[in-house]
Amino acid sequence: MSTQRDLPWPAVAGADIGGSQLERAWSPDAFHVLAKPTGAICNLGCSYCFFLDKEELYQGSRFHMSDEVLDRYIRQLIEAHGTRVVTVAWQGGEPTLMGLDFYRRAIEVQERYRKPDMTFENTMQTNGTLLTDEWCEFLKENEYLVGISIDGPQPLHDINRVNKRGEGTFDKVMRGLRLLQRHEVEYNVLTTVNAVNGDFPLDVYRFLRDEVGTDWMQFIPVVERVDEAGKPAFLNGTFASDRSVGAEQFGRFLSEIFDEWVRNDVGRVYVQTFEATVRNWMGLPSSGMCVFNETCGLGVALEHNGDLYSCDHFVEPEYLIGNIGETDMGDLVGSKRQHDFGMDKRDLLPQYCLDCDVRFACHGECPKNRFIETPDGEPGLNYLCSGFKDFFHHVDEPMRVMTEALRSQRPAALVMEYLRQRDAAFDRAVARAGRNDPCPCGSGEKTKRCHGSHQSPPPVLPPMPTGPGEPRPRVRGRSTT
Ligand code: SF4
Ligand code: SF4
Question: What is the pTM of this model?
């Protein structure tokens, strides 16, 4: 399953020069390639995996990256990078199906073409079911960051994450995950949020935190586009499948986990969406997630045969930029065509988004999800819009508290003490109020009809607590994709 990426902020040189679609329009110093050495091939059959259909793009293929393509890919990746650190990211399908020797050769190729002082960050997104001690020894030795896909506790995971016979894969995934932990391989967890687990945010979060024992998680919404008849229609679908998470459902999912996180786990558990949100509240140049940046275009997808696509969510013929056997990867990524793809994320926003008070945080999210109309009938609104609006409004106050703390060189974790004080002060105010008095929350309702029947946070900001310094949000250096 694909994810949204941590992306480098582009160091752009040169302007749009028009002409051929492969003329250079920008020269990013660094970019992110999701390489799929087995193409769409996977040992599992997860019901919502959008890669499964991609097999049809390469009918008759062995779906196996050759050593020639591997060599060319790594060499061109290194040549195109002006940075000291280069990320080499493997995904699928299921990348472990290539076998360990392929990845041993990949390390050899990196060493062969390495520039002086260059270091590599190798990452792999896997379902974990084929991991062995030998795999884990290799991953540990080469300092891989491994992303494991798991959708929550067994009943939630096994609904969609099944093998080819339709059987749940929870036990096998957990076995792989425990192997990684035993070998102390750096890993994180990717959870796709769908129509079912979307109703159980706290069960999912607490399971990942307390039972899996991870301190790094990503939540990716499942949005499958279908036509009126419910058939998969990828970029042409104007409806979402029944398996897809609902817009408000996704907003609630994020908000409920946020409430748990912001009261207990800030600085201790990394949730990619929350980190990106803090960064956007702070006005940093990049959120760290392509979907929440103003523009994109620096995350391309490499197929097993060297075909390069604009993004792994756009592996479709019209988004094929070229083949690295014919055109150098740096030229393909720097092309006007790819540049325009990335700028369109900003330039094609409907007016409704341009007028939106949380656009600085959302930026219309991913273009692949922009298939509904705005209230006044303009096309191109994100299917998840209402959920994102709810979520970003919901987190505004704690985000402002964290931003203020970080800007004054204090830890974002102070927000937890702030909320404790605030909640306690509000509870006291409610307890003091008469049943028929106006509720202390300011709703205008009688207390007995409002927070007198249940308690929830008040709207008033108490003073910020003080504490030792921390210069910026905790940003994990690497992300599997
Ligand atoms: S289209 Fe852009 S925003 Fe969406 S996943 Fe691809 S790079 Fe990210
Ligand atoms: S919340 Fe909705 S209106 Fe606002 S930027 Fe996002 S998609 Fe656009």
Answer: 0.88
Calculate how far, in angstroms, residue 391's C-alpha sits from the geometric centre of ligand 2.
11
Number of helices followed by number of strands (H, E) in the chain: 15, 14
The answer to whether the beta carbons of residues 6 and 279 sit under 8 Å apart is no
Tokens at 246, concatenated: 């609902």
- CB burial class (10 A; 0-12, 13-18, 19+) of residue 294? middle
Strand order in the sheet with 186-193: 270-271, 216-221, 186-193, 145-149, 119-126, 85-90, 32-35, 299-302, 307-309, 320-323
Give the three-class secondary structure for 173.
helix
- Residue type present at position 226: V
Backbone angles phi, psi at 358, to 5 degrees: -115, 20
Does ligand 2 lie within 6 Å of residue 251's CB atom? no
179: enclosing H helix or E strand: helix 170-182
* Best CA proximity match to 300, nearest among 332, 336, 273, 328: 332
Phi, psi of 7 (to 5 degrees): -120, 145
- Six-digit token pair at 208? 């990942």
Q: Is the pLDDT of residue 284 over 90?
A: yes
Which candidate, 222, 480, 248, places its Cα nearest to that of 368? 222
Q: Is 366 in the pocket of ligand 1 (CB under 6 A)?
A: yes
| pLDDT 10s digits, 170-199 | 999 999 999 999 999 999 999 999 999 999
Kindly report, residue by residue over 37-79, the tens digit of the pLDDT.
998 888 787 776 655 566 677 877 778 899 999 999 999 999 9
**What is the atom index within ligand 1 of the atom nearest the CA of 290?**
8
CB of 353 shorter than 6 A to ligand 2: yes
Cβ atoms of 349 and 295 closer than 8 Å: no
Does ligand 2 have an atom closer than 6 angstroms to the CB of 387? no
pLDDT of res. 465: 42
Check: CB of residue 300 under 8 Å from CB of residue 338.
yes
pLDDT at 327 over 90: yes
In the chain, the amino acid numbered 183 is: H
Q: Over the stretch 427-473, which tens digit does the pLDDT of each residue have?
A: 899 989 999 999 988 888 999 889 887 655 544 444 444 433 332 23
How many other C-beta atoms lie within 10 A of the C-beta of residue 119?
A: 11
Tell me which of 313, 370, 382 to substitute to probe ligand 1's pocket, judged by most ligand atoms within 8 Å of the beta carbon: 313
